[in-house]
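Internal ticket - ligand job 279, adenosine-5'-triphosphate:
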Amino acid sequence: MAYLELNNIYKIYGEGDGATEVLSDINLSIEEGEFVAIVGFTGSGKTTLVNLINGLLKPTSGEILFKGEPIIDTSHERGVIFQNYSLLPWLTVGQNIYMAVKEAFPNESKRVLQQRVKDYVAMVSLSPAINKRPKELSGGMRQRVAVARALAMNPEMIIMDEPLGALDALTRGNLQDEILNIWSKDKRTALLITNDVDEGIYMADRIIPLKPGPNATLGPEFKIDIERPRDKTALNDNPNYKKTRNAIIEYLMDIGEARKSVSQTEYILPEISPKSFVA
Ligand SMILES: Nc1ncnc2c1ncn2[C@@H]1O[C@H](COP(=O)(O)OP(=O)(O)OP(=O)(O)O)[C@@H](O)[C@H]1O
Ligand SMILES: [Mg+2]
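stdout (structure tokens):
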């Protein structure tokens, strides 16, 4: 039994003439402890996929099983780093995270929870901003609060919807390593949505492309056969890294071109410059 299983998932938004089939025939199986990355085109349905797995949305057809049971609602076992951060504007950084950990550990003492909040705020280097409200923060700072909030809840499965997109290369690299640390410590399961092929190769065991929409479906998987812990600076000289990176980029460019010729829409390719390796 797979840890997470999506069988023949279709998602249609709207009805009648206004209906759009966003996701088509999505089949995905993730084993416990795996780190899977999905790299997709902009607007292709990545967040829709995340919300289906999180339990915020229901598929139009098909089934999603988490540890063998259908997903019917959100759960603390699956922690999501949302693309839009979704912080409560009237609460400070510390209070936003406190509320989440209180929900995840209802029987823990206030002192333990407050320490946990402090630790995770420090992990994302936001200790000086712990009493600020979201509107006083930059986009990148808000993104880091969202990362801290999701990880502080200690989820079994970490689901990340382009979690580091608004960050500079150095901060992004540090948080990639923090996420990998947390994932590997207790062998959690992770699903990363990213538009950065290099980020996917650095972090994941497998990369699966999501084709451009509408009717987006998953492409063939690319296994990342590079030993862990991975060394960013050495990756550029790793023949496996080069081979895998070229194969993924070639695949993405081919499907982007193929879609363009039928739809006239310009598809924006995922980020393919090695910006996450400036460190
Ligand atoms: N609630 C909704 N109702 C109707 N259409 C929606 C809804 N949510 C998303 N869509 C449409 O579904 C498609 C996929 O949206 P989604 O947000 O899943 O894409 P994405 O790949 O996450 O995009 P991005 O790269 O911008 O993050 C888009 O065309 C969007 O307009
Ligand atoms: Mg999205």
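Auto-summary: The pocket of adenosine-5'-triphosphate (ligand 1) is lined by residues 13-14, 22, 40, 42-48, 83, 213 (CB under 6 Å). The first strand starts at residue 4 and ends at 13.
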